[in-house]
Amino acid sequence: MREVLFRCSSIGKLMGAPVSIDPALVTPDVQKILDSKKRTDEEKARIEGLKLRTLSEGAKTYVRELVRQEIWGVDFESSSKYTEKGLAVEGQALELINRVRGLSLTKNTERRSDDLLTGEADTIDLLNQEGWDVKSSWSLQTFPAFLQDCADSLYAYQMRGYMRLWGVDRWHVGYAMVDTPDELLGRYEPLPLHIVSHIPEHMRLTVWTIERDMEIERQMVIKLQAARTYYQQCIEEFSALHPDPKEEACQSHLSCAMQ
Predict the structure, then answer these.
(1) Does some domain include residue 10?
(2) How far apart are CA 128 and CA 59, in angstroms?
(3) What does pTM read for this prediction?
(4) I want to staple 204 with a disulfide (CB 3.0 to 4.6 A). Which of 30, 128, 136, 177 is the partner?
(5) Pure H helices in the chain
(6) 117 three-class SS
(7) Which domain, by its residues, includes 95?
(8) 230 and 197 housed in the same domain
(9) How many domains, the chain?
(10) Does the residue 253 lie in any domain?
């Protein structure tokens, strides 16, 4: 089976800190450090490095989920009214960003991959060495009007993945609020929260910027490599747990013929 490439949107789900070091990485000298009440700076750095190479239980659960999707050829992510609106008004949201910021951004259709990641960013501005992710809020109630409401580690890691793939210096996440299409509005949705064209456009756009950080990127690579190793282990475990009866029968016949 081919080496798995992780989507940029997956990175944040793999970056959680583990409670303890993977037992496979605990050598006698490492155990000695763990048992010690006082550690040198060098020993502390070594332990942190081993933790970086260890997946959290949450990350392992997510990798097993990815393996099941790969084996069965399905996608567990289901659509919702929020994602449906995002897809329906993506063009309008991008136009709003262009008007408010005086830009000429266009929809990106290129998917890029390297040895670990794959991703298709919303729009790229190579001239200014930056990219944009366009997010359309469901309603005024969910629209993040302040930066404190924007910060999201999962999104941040996703944007860092895009920065790595496109080699740019920063990434903007543009939260735009545009009218919700009529067909998505339920009977009890308050219209004032969804029909917003009368509100000045600059009041309906919040931009959160993430700067590229090579140290964080280095940590991402280490964690992604650990996730890939665990992914392969899960593939092998699944195959052993769910053997193909036909292959077992062939192996049995082959063994009998050789006796």
Answers:
(1) yes
(2) 35
(3) 0.90
(4) 177
(5) 11-14, 28-35, 41-52, 57-72, 81-88, 90-101, 153-166, 214-241, 245-258
(6) strand
(7) 81-212
(8) no
(9) 2
(10) no
Half-sphere exposure of 99 toward its Cβ, with a 13 Å CA cutoff?
13
Tell me: do 15 and 125 sit in the same domain.
no
Whether the Cβ atoms of residue 142 and residue 193 lie closer than 8 Å to each other: no
Query: Does residue 250 belong to any structural domain of this protein?
Result: no
Could you tell me how many residues make up the chain?
A: 259
Measured distance CA(122)–CA(57) in Å, rounded:
31
Inside any domain, residue 251: no
Shared domain for 190 and 97, answered yes or no, is yes
Closest C-alpha to 14, from 79, 76, 60: 60
Tell me, yes or no, whether 67 and 106 share the same domain: no
164 C-beta neighbours (distance < 10 Å), count: 21
Q: Residue 209 forms beta bridges with which residues?
A: 172
Give, for all 259 residues of the chain, the pLDDT tens digit. Answer: 578 999 999 999 999 999 999 999 999 999 999 999 899 999 999 999 999 999 999 999 999 999 999 999 999 988 899 999 999 999 999 999 999 999 999 999 999 999 999 999 999 999 999 999 999 999 999 999 999 999 899 999 999 999 999 999 999 999 999 999 999 998 889 999 999 999 999 999 999 999 999 999 999 999 999 999 999 999 999 999 999 887 655 555 555 555 5
Kindly state whether residues 113 and 70 are assigned to the same domain.
no
Note the helical H segments in 26-172. Answer: 28-35, 41-52, 57-72, 81-88, 90-101, 153-166
